[in-house]
Amino acid sequence: MICKMEKRWINLLLFAVMICTSPAYSGQQKQGSAKEPGNSTEKKPATRYQTLHDFTVKDIDGNDFALSSLKGKKVLVVNVASRCGLTPQYEELQQLYTLYQKENFVVIGFPANNFNGQEPGTNREIKAFCTGKYGVAFPMMDKISVKGEDIAPLYRWLTHKDENGVKEQEVTWNFQKFMIDEEGRLVDVVMPRESPLSDRIVKWIRQD
After folding, report:
1. Phi, psi of 106 (to 5 degrees)
2. Predicted local distance difference test score (pLDDT) of residue 105
3. Catalytic residues, which ones?
4. What would the DSSP string read from start to end of 172-190?
5. Nearest to 141 by CA among 56, 200, 47
6. What tens digit of pLDDT does each residue of 130-164 get?
7. Cβ of 72: how many Cβ atoms within 10 Å?
8. Are 179 and 206 in contact, with CB atoms under 8 Å apart?
9. 7-37 residues labelled b (16+ CB within 10 A) or e (exposed)
10. Which among 43, 54, 107, 171 has the fewest CB atoms less than 10 Å away?
11. Is the pLDDT of residue 9 over 70?
């Protein structure tokens, strides 16, 4: 004969089994498990990539040049050199700038000595050369590095998709052209040998 104490324990065990197997209890367990680390279905906020306008550089005279001052303009960023077979592109770049500067367009030149030592001069020498020989009037910047371990922050952004959100494209030679829209976002890259006056570039400048 079962004593009262034993009956009480049996009843408690039966009650516990009923609770654990009830639909309400099972639903609570499932709902709780969804909140465990790694099981969240909440969307993470989209990454905000930098734009051209987030950078400040030095101009060829050593003054700070905030690229945010170019908001609302299309920008062609070009690494230039004075002793390159493509150096005559300076003249075409100036023609492009002269034709479209009134249409919210600007060229920016960045002297760089990354390719066969073809830009060995100082900022002063570079400025005298490009203005004297090619009549360059578009903004010229401080001499920088456009590739390698000492790459300038702006060019790291231009050449790495994980920073610009658009394209992965290292600089392959002097006079590579990066097309930037009015909001400072990278649009595309034009390789060094393509003329600054190519239909591709002109159509991009003229399109609304």
Report:
1. -145, 145
2. 98
3. 84
4. -STT-EEEE-TTS-EEEEE
5. 56
6. 999 999 999 999 999 999 999 999 999 999 999 99
7. 9
8. no
9. eeeeeeeeeeeeeeeeeeeeeeeeeeeeeee
10. 43
11. no
Q: Give the confidence band of 37 by pLDDT, cuts at 50, 70, 90.
A: very low
**Tokens of residue 143, six digits:** 């001499």
Is there a contact between 147 and 171 (Cβ–Cβ < 8 Å)? yes
Going 110 to 114 to 116 to 119, the CA torsion angle's sign is positive
pLDDT for the residue numbered 184: 98
Q: Which one, of 96, 94, 180, 176, lies nearest residue 140 by Cα? A: 94
CA-based nearest residue to 172, from 101, 86, 52, 48: 86
Residue 114: φ, ψ to 5°: -85, -10
Class of 52-206 per CATH?
alpha beta
Instruction: Tell whether the torsion through CA atoms of 136, 112, 51 and 169 is positive or negative.
Output: positive
CA–CA distance, 86 with 72 (Å, rounded to integer): 30
- Distance (Å, whole) CA 99 – CA 105: 9
Domain boundaries, the chain: 52-206
Confidence of residue 33 (pLDDT cuts 50, 70, 90): very low
Q: Per DSSP, what are the bridge partners of residue 190?
A: 177
140 and 127 Cβ atoms separated by less than 8 Å: yes
